[in-house]
Amino acid sequence: MEPLSPVLPDDADVAVRVRGLVTGFGDRTLHDHLDLDVARGEVLGLVGGSGSGKSVLMRTIIGLNPARAGRIEIFGANALDPDPVARRNLRRQWGVLFQEGALFSGLTVAENIEVPMREFLSLPEPVMAELACTRLRQVGLPVDAAAKYPSELSGGMKKRAGLARALALDPPLLFLDEPTSGLDPISAAGFDNLIRLLKDTLGLTLFLITHDLDTLIAICDRVAVLGDGKVLACGTVDQLRAFDHPWVQEYFGGPRGRAATTLPRGEAA
Amino acid sequence: MGSSVSWNDEGAGEARVALAGRLTIDDVTDLANALARQPAAPLVVDMGGVTAIDTAGAWAVNRMVREWQAAGYTAQIDGAAPDVARLLAALGAPPPAAPVRPDLGNPIIVQLERIGRAVYGQAHNIGLFLAFLGQTLVVLGATLIGRRPLRWHAVVHQCEVIAVNALGIIALLLFLVGLVIAQQGAVQLRQFGAEVFTVNLIGRATTRELGILLTAIMVAGRSGSAFAAQIGSMKLNQEIDALRTIGLDPIEVLVIPRVIACSLMLVGLAFYGGLWALIAGGFYVWSDLSMPPAAYITRLQEVILQSDFAIGLIKAPVFGFIIALMGCFHGFQASSNAESVGSRTTQAVVESIFLVIVFDAFFAFFFSFLGYN
Ligand SMILES: Nc1ncnc2c1ncn2[C@@H]1O[C@H](COP(=O)(O)OP(=O)(O)OP(=O)(O)O)[C@@H](O)[C@H]1O
Ligand SMILES: [Mg+2]
Questions:
Q1: Which is deepest, A56, A205, B283, B314, by most CB within 10 Å?
Q2: DSSP one-letter code for A80
Q3: Which domains does chain B have, with CATH numbers?
């Protein structure tokens, strides 16, 4: 096996296994026989140029976008299984933060966080309210944001509310699409710390799309680089820095890439 | 139940609680209930047997600790694995529950307030509508005399969406209505042996009233709603703000093409719809009264006055204007959430149909008054 292969050994404990995935729109192919593994309990960062298909890959894995060919397994179960019961059980396993937040505009922030709890559990109202407030504080929102509607929040607050909703059930697997974009650097560092805490204490697996080099360096165990419809390379940031590919070199070796390495935000915070 | 809680108050002057198993959100209610006790002695929480914990479990434990500390007792956690201790420490004392919905206050006052707001809102809406009407008329005037550019592209596109795509459904609707009128008319008139007058009934009712009215209702349902929903979601998406910042006038870009296209197209659609109703009538009298098509057409030429046609076609652009204006107006009034787009779309359709009928009644009396019976 190549050193920076995105494929883990067959006997590895994987949370997400993608094999030979093909997706596209119209007559355009976006992912061309893409392979990727996310080990249980790891934070996998996904990087790639704008429009390289990171969000589409995430949407395909969680079943929002049809795959043209290939196999996707989540905790060993076939994620492309059309059986509604199987899909529902799978959905209980993951939380998703969309790039645009995707909060329900007709519900308050706290009600948004309560939606997954209502769907999968039967908790009394006061318990849900208290849990929602705990979540809010965890993601760095003031508790008085609980009764606000999404239209009354700033962009970064929406992001955090979306994260709180994704975390609502403490799912073992989290998909986050650019969680730190739109956050100020202090909140972004707070996010890094939160993810590290959840990962260490709850053993979460994270599939994290990000352009934030500080986040990549601070919390990702492995980073996968998406390009030309495939995962070009997958490894630690240091391994990738040594990887001989023009885009990867420019990404990690450019001025921003170097700045992030010399001053890792996670350490400073 | 995945977790087990056992209280042991035998100890010397302290309350011990031993937690074991999985403290997770799945049975956090049971956990929270089992942990709820009146604080009466210093607390020791033994977490040695905990096999798994998540944020909800940690919340329950921390909440108990907060309660006991608030009552003035010490609370100590024993035997927690390092990760569990870290999670508990990082979460800290849970915040007291904040209201989940905006506080509305006394329900009676709330109802009264709702009534007041609805009345005020309607009055305010009328003001807003008049302002919108004025703005639209100013821009429309400026466009018609060439002081403002007319977006031909948009007009043509709207014409296609409003009229061309509706040709099938309007033909079907008016054909069926024509058949029903002819059939019902023939049944009634037969009692006086006056079946031949069925042609008068079909000819005049459809050209003057039904063709235009039913077409307008169909267009209000199809296109008025579409205008409100399109503009409403553009508003949510801040696209209207983006237009303004670029220096484009949303009225000029969005409203004028729709108003012009809708007014013009309703004339054509009403004519077309009336034609289908006449065809249906001809079909019926041919099959039921054995009146050949040629005779039907000659009879139609005798009974339909030119003024009937003119009246139908004068009303059409007015109705088109009302429908487009209502749709656009309500689209612009949408605010902040998906629900408001929905309710504004409903209002756009209901109010435009209502206004169309009101204006139709007005026209009917007006033209009768002028002697066009
Ligand atoms: N629903 C869709 N229909 C057609 N094309 C689409 C659709 N969704 C995405 N695409 C195309 O797929 C490509 C990948 O989109 P994607 O959103 O995955 O990019 P991304 O890698 O997430 O970029 P970014 O970093 O900017 O978020 C883009 O070129 C986009 O135009
Ligand atoms: Mg994206």
A1: A205
A2: T
A3: 3-92 (3.30.750.24), 117-369 (no CATH)
